[in-house]
Amino acid sequence: MNNIKKVAAAQVSPVFLNKEETIEKACKVILEAGAAGAELIVFPEAFVSGYPDWVWLIPNSKGGELNKLYVELVENAISVGDTSTKKLCKAAKTAGIHVVMGMHERNSETSNASLFNSLLFIDDQGEIIGKHRKLIPTGGERLIWAQGDGQTLKAYDTSVGKLAGLVCWENFMPLARNCIYEQGAQILATPTWDKSPNWLQSMQHIAREGGLFIISACMPLKMDDIPDRYDFKKLYPEGREWVNVGNSCIIAPNGKLLAGPVEAKEQIVYAEIDLKDIIHAKRMFDATGHYARPDVFEFNLRKK
């Protein structure tokens, strides 16, 4: 197997709360990345169809306003296997590229009215190979998203390497990370809304801890990207231009930045990775290998 792979982080903005146009944009980005020779592209957290930043602005006492926003969010969410996912799969197959897509996902197995913060994994043949539902929404996000469970904590064998994903701050959960490490993940997709220097430092640490490559994709979002009909726009400080500047990047197993962070613009961030660098890193520290100490520690994943 060729150890050199070209991978990408899609630092691109959605068409805010517009599923159809966001999917069309995503397909164009997938095709562009494939044409550039990338074998894997990772999209931001909740890319379809936009991060609900109002959860940090509107108090829960404003039920009427929150209800309207939630209805619109659900109407623009994805059900795995629907027309939107079929379009993404077709684009992935045409481009010959693996895709990790951040999305609002309906609980289509039951009420179809609750949402998960999910990642959809599509292979380069256009097949859905899995999904992951974020285990714990952070802070105000709990007004929007339900909790995922252990059955979606998986690493997938692909032609680009063993691929897994954790969403935003669930990457801070040591046992969730350990679960991914134990499955031999070589590339960890970490879609996020966090643009901070602390996030980047954490991603560099996790790359070193897990001995893997990290693709951190964050959504750049300008105030102008949010239509004026949304009243919560008035709650931002006057004169603010960017809601989120992105800072997407790709990190090597030694913690060094291979590409990015890219700030305050839309850009597909590319890097070439060498899977042999994983073995180089694990010679000194292998979290689930010679440093695991199973005689001292025991790990168990409850899948339900």
Structure description:
This protein has helices spanning 19-35, 63-75, 83-95, 174-182, 197-210, 276-282, and strands at residues 4-11, 40-42, 98-106, 115-122, 128-133, 155-158, 161-165, 187-189, 213-216, 221-222, 242-244, 246-251, 257-263, 267-274. It is an alpha/beta fold and 304 residues long. It has a single domain, classed as Carbon-nitrogen hydrolase (Nitrilase/N-carbamoyl-D-aminoacid amidohydrolase, 4-Layer Sandwich), CATH 3.60.110.10. The strands form three sheets. It has a six-stranded mixed sheet with strand order 5-4-3-2-1-14. Helix 1 runs parallel beside helix 3 (83-95).
Descriptive keywords:
single chain, 304 residues, alpha/beta, Nitrilase/N-carbamoyl-D-aminoacid amidohydrolase, 6-stranded mixed sheet, 25% strand
In short:
The protein is of the alpha/beta class and 304 residues long. It has helices at 19-35, 63-75, 83-95, 174-182, 197-210, 276-282; strands at 4-11, 40-42, 98-106, 115-122, 128-133, 155-158, 161-165, 187-189, 213-216, 221-222, 242-244, 246-251, 257-263, 267-274. The model has no long low-confidence stretch (mean pLDDT 96).
Summed up, the domain count is 1
Question: According to CATH, what is the topology?
Answer: Nitrilase/N-carbamoyl-D-aminoacid amidohydrolase
Number of separate strands: 14
- CATH class group: Alpha Beta
Spans where pLDDT lies below 50 across 5 or more residues: none
As laid out across the biggest beta sheet, the strand order is 5-4-3-2-1-14
N-to-C SSE string, H for helix and E for strand: EHEHHEEEEEHEHEEEEEEH
Q: Characterize the overall form.
A: globular
CATH architecture classification name:
4-Layer Sandwich
Assigned CATH superfamily? Carbon-nitrogen hydrolase
